[in-house]
Specification:
With 228 residues, the chain is an all-alpha fold. The protein has helices at 25-31, 45-94, 102-116, 128-143, 154-169, 177-189, 191-202; strands spanning 14-16, 21-23. Strands 1-2 form a two-stranded antiparallel sheet.
């Protein structure tokens, strides 16, 4: 059996379709989708991503709990609702995809923050997910103006959210740690909600927490988030 094409130390027990060589399971798990451009047809992609998401979900849950507590103290239910909307939109957009990165989420939140700032800040063209998040926020605020943070307090809430996402993500430029933790958390602790959001995304419906098509949340004593 040949050595791993990546580390050249361990035995390569998997045939990597991207590298056309054998790779060890450790390097496959560590470098997939970041340093290795994995095709969607790779048989190890889904199983590896699911395992990583479940593992990170356990770390994400208490961190999320503490953050929701901080948001509630900062801005009450409106601040919590804003972050909950970001979570729901992020999950529905990236569920089933393998190419999402935390940097996209941070960039989208920062773009929304600039939109809500009283000062006009020129910026580069809006990335796709950033435009999607902005649209969802505007629709929700129009339909539920009294339920979510607005121009007066949303910028500070979004600054806190950017810090939270960045801290959990870590320093790797291509990190998926926050995204994997969020996806794993919803799939593990709210499987019915996860299925519901995926179906709504596939059918083209806008995902808005609190509207009638949302299923009732699973009761949880450890989190302040009302819907995830």
């Amino acid at each position: 059996m040949s050595l791993c094409v990546y580390c050249k130390q361990r035995k390569g027990k998997r045939l990597c379709p991207a590298l056309s060589r054998s790779i060890c399971s450790a390097c496959c798990g560590e470098h997939r989708l970041t340093r290795i451009t994995c095709p969607d047809s790779c048989v190890y992609l889904d199983s590896g991503s699911d395992y990583q998401q479940r593992r990170l979900a356990e770390q994400f849950m208490p961190t999320r709990q503490n953050f929701y507590r901080d948001l509630a103290e900062l801005g009450g239910d409106k601040a919590v609702a804003l972050f909950n909307l970001i979570e729901v939109v992020t999950f529905s957009y990236f569920a089933g995809r393998h190419d999402g990165q935390d940097a996209e989420i941070v960039a989208a939140i920062q773009a929304l923050r600039r939109t809500l700032s009283p000062l006009h800040v020129p910026s580069a063209p809006t990335p796709v997910f950033a435009g999607h998040l902005k649209k969802e926020y505007e629709v929700f605020r129009k339909e539920n103006p009294q339920q979510i943070a607005d121009l007066s307090d949303a910028p500070e809430v979004l600054d806190r959210v950017v810090t939270f996402v960045s801290d959990f993500s870590g320093k790797d430029f291509q990190s998926q740690r926050f995204l994997s933790g969020l996806l794993g958390y919803v799939k593990t602790y709210h499987p019915q909600l996860a299925d519901h959001l995926r179906k709504k995304r596939e059918s083209g419906h806008i995902i808005l927490p609190g509207q009638s098509f949302m299923p009732p949340p699973v009761p949880e004593t450890y989190a302040h988030g009302p819907r995830l």
